[in-house]
Design goal:
The complex is a heterodimer. By secondary structure, chain A is mainly α. Chain A has 2 domains: about 180 residues, Orthogonal Bundle (Cytochrome Bc1 Complex, Chain D, domain 2); about 90 residues, Orthogonal Bundle (Cytochrome Bc1 Complex, Chain D, domain 2), CATH 1.10.760.10. The N and C termini of chain A lie far apart (about 45 Å). Chain B contains 6 helices and no strands. The chains are: A mainly alpha, B mainly alpha.
């Protein structure tokens, strides 16, 4: 807790540059997204959003580096297929009243995921796809699924896969929605924790750069690369080795822990707003569930 | 007087004593470099190779490009205090740095910072 408090207390005056990545005069979420793309293009010359949506794979082989990306290998293809098969079973399960998830979303859920997270004007909160899935369960008298659980990550992956290839289209269409977007952006650029990192430190200021050491047993030149903020959301939830699936907010938590901060809890207003802002940055890019090629 | 005569150091010639002191000092310096290297690599302490390449240490396989490679430290930082301030909190001079403020946020103690400095300077 000390680490988190230290980070938050210090953040008020310690953060400067990442927060100025966004145009000060920008008034709409789209203007701010375009401003960030411009800043990234200056840092990553010769590349653009079309490359960034591929994730680290966009940088494979550049400058003599071999980078780690989500590998398109048999193991991950199998894991990905297994995960989606389990997710489909959960999605298709009939509730006690005979309904199922497909009754809660327009078009039986096809292309729905591309519009999440959404701002709910009635409750004035951001609703992520996971929350929408749980709202569906509650509406039909079913028990909710724990956020961050294996079942939820597989259900989320399948729900996202129903929008495979669909371009992300997150809406920020009111002043109240913009407030949530701004809150997400503020957290994105705020330094936290003992290590004093912000999301923007790695995913904007040092985006696309290799970091860390080669893992034991891997090729010496194998390096992970900092993912780029614009385009990251298309491959959420993220497939990790051994079939582990991490939701967007589980990824946020991991980054916060790496910064030496106590992470916000899954489904908290802070992480919902961050996911809203972060997802909006990938608007116009096609969804690639689990980041694997199929 | 008898007691003093029995003290081993008093019975050694000054040149041998000087050699011993020098050896002890070198041994302590080497220990500091070794401890600095351990802290440099420790993911829960310096974790420095996550961001810096270390061409002078063939066992470190970092190709990271987050921070500059650690070469010619003596030339780049002729004054140790300047290098020390960089580790303590680079943010005071480079506001958008990603380098953790090792001293200000107590990631490393003052003596640990000195040990890391000894290792970096030895490269």
């Amino acid at each position: 807790m000390f680490r988190y408090l230290a980070g938050v207390c210090l953040a008020a005056f310690a953060f400067s540059s990442p927060s100025t990545l966004f145009a000060q005069s920008a008034t709409t979420a789209e203007q701010e997204r375009l401003s960030l793309i411009k800043a990234l293009q200056k840092r990553l010359p010769g590349t653009g959003p079309g490359d960034w949506q591929l994730g680290p794979a966009a940088f494979a082989g550049s400058d003599g580096d071999i980078v780690q990306s989500i590998p398109f290998n048999d193991e991950n293809a199998t894991n990905s297929a297994d995960i989606l098969a389990i997710g489909k079973k959960l999605w298709d399960r009939k509730f006690k009243n005979g309904k199922s998830f497909s009754h809660c979303f327009a078009n039986s859920g096809k292309q729905a995921a591309a519009t999440y997270p959404q701002f709910d004007a009635r409750t004035k909160v951001v609703v992520t796809l996971e929350i929408a899935l749980n709202r569906c369960l509650a509406l039909h008298g079913e028990s909710e699924i724990e956020l961050g659980s294996e079942a939820m990550s597989r259900l989320l992956a399948y729900a996202r896969s129903l929008s495979e290839g669909q371009r992300m289209a997150i809406k920020v269409s009111s002043a109240a929605a913009k407030e949530k977007f701004d809150a997400g952006q503020a957290l994105f650029t705020r330094r936290i924790g003992q290590n004093n990192f912000a999301c923007a430190s790695c995913h904007v200021l040092h985006a696309g750069k290799p970091f860390g050491q080669a893992e034991p047993g891997t090729r010496e030149r194998s390096q992970p690369v900092n993912p780029i903020a614009v385009g990251q959301a298309v491959s959420w939830p993220r497939l990790e080795p051994k079939g582990l699936v991490l939701s967007p907010q589980a990824l946020f938590q991991r980054c916060m822990q790496r910064s030496g901060a106590e992470p916000f809890i899954l489904g908290s207003e802070e992480l919902n707003n961050l996911e809203y802002f972060y997802s909006f940055l990938s608007n116009g890019m096609p969804i690639r569930t689990l980041g694997t090629a199929r | 007087m008898a007691l003093v005569a029995k003290t081993p150091c008093r019975s050694l010639p000054p040149s041998t004593l000087l050699l011993l002191v020098t050896l002890l000092w070198m041994s302590a310096a080497q220990a500091s470099v070794a401890e600095g290297r351990r802290l440099f690599l420790d993911p829960k302490k310096g974790n420095c190779a996550a961001c810096h390449q270390v061409p002078g240490d063939s066992e470190i396989k970092s190709r990271s490009k987050i921070g500059p490679p650690l070469v010619e430290i003596g030339k780049r930082f002729p004054e140790r205090n300047v290098l020390r301030a960089t580790l303590w909190d680079l943010g005071t001079t480079v506001p958008d740095t990603i380098m953790p403020p090792y001293g200000r946020h107590r990631l490393l103690t003052e003596s640990e910072i000195d040990a890391v400095l000894s290792y970096i300077e030895s490269l």
